[in-house]
Specification:
This protein is α/β, with parallel strands linked by helices. The protein is built from 8 helices and 9 strands.
């Protein structure tokens, strides 16, 4: 982002962090939709894609798009998993963002609708620190998600709300979120990248568990999840994710 001359008001930017592993099939459509929706909403934006050792040309697609839209590519030579990819995406977004900006994380497979970003941004501007696109808010729409995954999300939500209640949060496992950039920048400055220490899909839950006591304002918007748009199989190993999340919950419970 370019420097702003003294006396001029800098526009607020939306920095969108996308963890990507072999997402060549769905990523172009998502990047086009982000660009179009940000233009229609009049929002300045920057995309950070973390290519987690992809072998399908994901990195090449990002380099081509970087000639047309504001996009930064971070590359892992080897696949490191979602935790490391989310970590590096948030850290790079924090480096790019100003404290007044908003950092959005979402999936790179085109199953998350970027048109929701405008609503999430409005809630952050109205005073929320974290806004989650929730599958459990009234009006949410979920298409194409296997029954086992839907059941896992539902029971995880209930269990987490009982053990780790956070006012304003029902969906703990969805990674489609908007954060005040000052929040993420403060975390990185105080704790460093090691704050984001979880390796797998449980990293999404852990971020909420670790910031839940920080006197933050949380909110949710109804999610539109189009899993039927996703190309290729899911990368989540369900049983491993359940075991890892339960172990994480036990650890955080005894730490609190």
């Amino acid at each position: 982002m370019t420097a702003v001359p003294t006396g001029e008001r800098r526009r607020q930017h939306i920095v969108v962090a996308l963890p990507a592993y072999n997402e060549a099939a769905g990523l172009p459509a998502l990047l086009d939709r982000i660009d179009e929706s940000m233009f229609e909403a009049g929002l300045a934006y920057h995309v950070v894609v973390v290519d987690d050792g992809s072998s399908d040309g994901t990195g090449g697609i990002c380099r081509e798009y970087a000639t047309r839209i504001p996009l930064t590519l971070v590359t892992h030579d080897l696949n490191q998993g979602l935790g490391a990819t989310i970590r590096d995406g948030l850290v790079r977004a924090a480096q790019i963002a100003d404290g007044r900006d908003i950092i959005v994380t979402m999936d790179a497979d085109n199953s998350h609708t970027p048109e929701l970003i405008q609503r999430m941004v409005r809630m952050v501007r109205e005073g929320h620190d974290v806004v989650i696109a929730s599958r459990f808010e009234h009006g949410a729409i979920v298409r194409g998600v296997p029954l086992l995954r839907r059941a896992l999300s539902y029971w995880s939500s209930i269990f987490l709300r009982v053990v780790f209640p956070i006012h304003g949060v029902r969906d703990y496992t969805c990674g489609y979120r908007a954060y005040k950039a000052s929040l993420i920048k403060g975390i990185v400055e105080r704790h460093g990248p090691q704050f984001f220490e979880q390796e797998g899909f449980q990293c999404i839950v852990d971020i909420l568990l670790r910031i839940r006591s920080d006197d933050l304002v949380f909110g949710e918007v109804p999610m539109v999840l189009r899993y039927d748009f996703k190309q290729g199989p899911s990368k989540m190993k369900v049983l491993k994710t359940i075991r890892s999340t339960l172990a994480l919950m036990v650890r955080r419970r005894f730490e609190s």
